[in-house]
Amino acid sequence: MDASRKTILVTGGVAFIGTRTVVQLLNEGFKVLIIDNLDNFVIEAVDRVKELVGPELSKKLQFNLFHLGLCLQMTYNECNLTSVELDFTCNNWLRFDAIIHFASLKIELQYLHEYAGISSSIGLTTNPIVNFSSVLGTNVLALGIDISFDKKTENFTKCNMGLSFTNADLIAFLALHVNEKGDLVNTSYYHILNPSTNTIIATEVTHSFFTNVNTIIVGIQHALDLLTTIKA
Known about the structure:
Number of helices: 2
CATH topology of the largest domain: Porin
GO molecular function: voltage-gated monoatomic anion channel activity
Pfam families: Porin_3
Radius of gyration: 25 Å
InterPro entries: NAD(P)-bd_dom_sf, Porin_dom_sf, Porin_Euk, Porin_Euk/Tom40
Protein name: NAD(P)-binding domain-containing protein
Low-confidence stretches: 67-93
Family: Belongs to the eukaryotic mitochondrial porin (TC 1.B.8.1) family.
CATH architecture of the largest domain: Beta Barrel
């Protein structure tokens, strides 16, 4: 790869790790585009990068202020991300050959085990949203929970719990959803009547405590052949 002909886009390039990555890329001869919203850092970090690499290499560095509320449109060329539109009102397109993404606005911790999976995250903002989710069980019986807490409003924005049972020809699921709109209890049943014809019947029942309304959905499908399936 001829580094002098390549442009690297670095999102979150003003942060601690981002600036050191930018310095390394510039020293190796790459052109660098930085995108950062400066929520947690200051523009002086870019000036510090220029001081470290010198005036000649600084000519290959471009900084772009990107606000989270701004629409970010990306295009793809042969399955490779090649351009990003920062301000579609000005039609300002930036071209690059590769992207290094440091612009994550949360810290996430995951633990995976044969019979358990746990994930927790917290947003890197003044009033973060804290999320915790976990699944315990086997491929037959599993219990899961998903909770989100908004520190700004000091309310739980999401609290979902579910229990599922699966065997060779059926899947049964019971869930409790609690959010800002109310409480929902949902249960579903998915049964394979005939695997050879892919004949399946499914039922879902939902009850809302907030509106005191029950919703029942029943569906069935049957394959006439490999290319034709009837659903109702």
